[in-house]
Amino acid sequence: MPRIANKLDLAVPEYDDIRKAAANDVDEQLRKLQRMDDRLELAAHIIRQADAEIALHAGDRNGALASLYLYDHYEGHHLGQMAGLTKNAVREILSQAVYDDPKKPLPPRMTEEEMTRIALDHNVPHVTETPGDTLRSTGEVIEAAKARRATAVRWMQDAALALHEADRTHVEMAEHAGVSRKLIWQQVQAARRRRGY
């Protein structure tokens, strides 16, 4: 008989609404700017800020998820919903926590005792101070940051292409936005692909 896993007694965040609001905020900010170089600069800033937020909170989210699953035996699918993650992302986070390799799968159908044992054997930290709240709050921050980043990337691509077509060099654009020439080149190429040329 399959084990009946616990679920957190917390409301699952409305991630679709969180992502949509974050994307709309970026659209509003960048739409107000008429100059393409200003759009390029602000989009690059938003991307850097989002990357920093994701990096700052990912460890806490992943640690809380692994602890809740391996030590406290909460259902993996539910933990993924709480953090805004797909099933595959949950599996990769657990594998990273245990094996330091996101692609190495955990043993299938472990008992609760086996889950605790594998966590102890691989020195997975047991988060005991509000791990459910941590999982949920960091998930909200990260998913909003990812949505802001994705939206800013499209704006950056379009601004880079417009400036390129106006004969601005990649060096000039890179210096203005505070990014590498290679990134500018990649953004121009991505915008061209999106537009089908």
Which terms would index this structure?
single chain; 197 residues; mainly alpha; 0% strand; elongated
Question: What this model shows, in words?
Answer:
- By secondary structure, this protein is mostly helical.
- It starts with 14 loop residues before the first helix and ends with a helix.
- The protein has helices spanning 15-31, 36-70, 76-83, 87-99, 112-121, 131-165, 170-177, 181-195.
- The longest helix has 35 residues, at 36-70.
Q: What's this entry about, in short?
A:
With 197 residues, the chain is mostly helical. Helices cover 72% and strands 0% of the residues.
How is the secondary structure organized here?
Elements: H1 15-31, H2 36-70, H3 76-83, H4 87-99, H5 112-121, H6 131-165, H7 170-177, H8 181-195
Oligomer kind? single chain
Count of individual helical segments: 8
Can you give the helix content as a percent range?
Answer: over 70%
Radius of gyration: 21 Å
Mean pLDDT: 95
Shape call: elongated
Which band does the percent of strand residues land in?
Answer: under 5%
Question: How far is the first residue's CA from the last residue's CA?
Answer: 56 Å
Q: Got a strand count? A: 0
Summing up helix and strand content along with how strands pair, one would put the structural category as: mainly alpha
SSE sequence, one letter per element = HHHHHHHH
Low-confidence stretches: none
Major β-sheet annotation: none
